[in-house]
Design a protein that fits this description.
single chain, 350 residues, globular, tryptophan biosynthesis, Nuc_phospho_transferase, anthranilate phosphoribosyltransferase activity, Anthranilate phosphoribosyltransferase
């Protein structure tokens, strides 16, 4: 009988959305709870996500879905204050290297506590999990091991597949319909450690203000949602980037150019990456001081934003300067070695 009631709830939600009416935050949370519980059929999951996409997902709908997903997640229990994530949506269709992953390591080396959340590639050639694995990082830490890693060296990586097991119910329908839906936005909104600061890249610059507002509803203290005019879900060095900045519960939107960050505008083709091994090579070359070109510059832009959002600098420009110093001093390379060594050691600790 419970299943019948839940199915009727999904049917009512579909009728609401197909009719062009928005779900309330509570209704959206209830729909996602049904999905995460495995009580919705694949047809219903595909239908509701497609209908929401066609109507246009609201702040309340995205927030409700994210709240439910958070409640079903495996959590990392640690001090959340001043904790940064750099997880983005992906889906830009541009096969760049793993900029947010490199930026997270640099931010940690600058003294920002980082709980990096990420997954294997969904649309690109290499996700953060793939590239970190190629660098030698153990990506399969349990919540307890991740918390210890964070406490010991100031950074951890949380492999999304291990922390959101209930998403398996949506995996098939998502794959079968093959379009971007609300699920593409949820990963970056569901940090398992409850990070209260975030640099979040999104493929659609028309949604930066909405997503920044959602982050505020979810309790984040400070965040930047970025989307470049050339289609990157990163701060670009090839075009201006739109930024919606959350601070003190208020969202402010503006654009920034590479020159305003003290960087030179370069061709987008200069930041294209490859598979996991190639992206790992690029990151090592930046950290080892062997690369002073576009790869390094786009990492400086994004790592600078991470440092700024994480409280390690008073402006984006100052954050870029700190990131440059961290790389040139060898601290970034040292932090990567720490992450490799510590996650390797923790893999033998229950």
């Amino acid at each position: 009988m419970a299943v019948t009631n839940e199915l009727m709830t999904m049917q009512r939600a579909l009728n609401v959305v197909v009719g062009g009416t928005n779900l309330t935050r509570e209704e959206a949370r209830g729909v996602m709870e049904i999905i995460m519980s495995g009580e919705a059929s694949g047809a219903q999951i595909g239908a509701i996500s497609t209908a929401l996409r066609m109507k246009g997902e609201t702040k309340d709908e995205i927030t409700g879905f994210a709240e439910a997903m958070r409640s079903f997640s495996n959590h990392v229990h640690t001090e959340r204050n001043g904790l940064l994530d750099t997880c983005g949506t992906g889906g830009s269709g541009i096969h760049k290297f793993n900029i947010s992953t490199a930026s997270a390591i640099i931010a940690s080396a600058a003294g920002v506590r980082v709980a990096k959340h990420g997954n294997r590639a969904m649309s690109g050639k290499s996700g953060s999990a793939d590239t970190l694995e190629a660098l030698g990082v153990n990506i399969t830490l349990s919540p307890e091991q991740a918390a210890r890693c964070l406490d010991e060296i100031g950074i951890c990586f949380m492999f999304a597949q291990l922390y959101h097991p209930s998403l398996k119910y949506a995996a098939g329908p998502r794959r079968e319909i093959g379009i971007r839906t609300i699920f593409n936005m949820l990963g970056p909104l569901t940090n398992p450690a409850g990070a209260d600061r975030q640099l979040l890249g999104i493929y659609d610059k028309s949604r930066t203000e909405t997503i920044a507002s959602v982050l505020g509803e979810l309790g984040l203290k400070r965040a930047m949602v970025v989307s470049s005019f050339d289609g990157l879900d990163e701060i670009s060095i090839s075009s201006p980037t739109q930024i919606s900045e959350l601070l003190g519960g208020t969202v402010r939107t503006y654009t920034i150019t590479p020159e305003e960050l003290g960087l030179t505008t370069r061709s987008l083709s200069e930041v294209i990456g490859g598979d996991a091994n190639e992206n790992a090579r690029i990151i090592r070359s930046i950290f080892n001081g062997d690369d002073f070109g576009a790869y390094r510059d786009i990492v400086l832009a994004n790592a600078g934003a991470c440092i700024f959002v994480g409280g390690g600098a008073d402006s984006l420009q100052a954050g870029v300067a700190v990131a440059r110093t961290v790389i040139d001093s060898g601290k970034a390379a040292m932090k990567l070695r720490q992450l490799i060594e510590t996650t390797g050691e923790l893999s033998h600790v229950s």
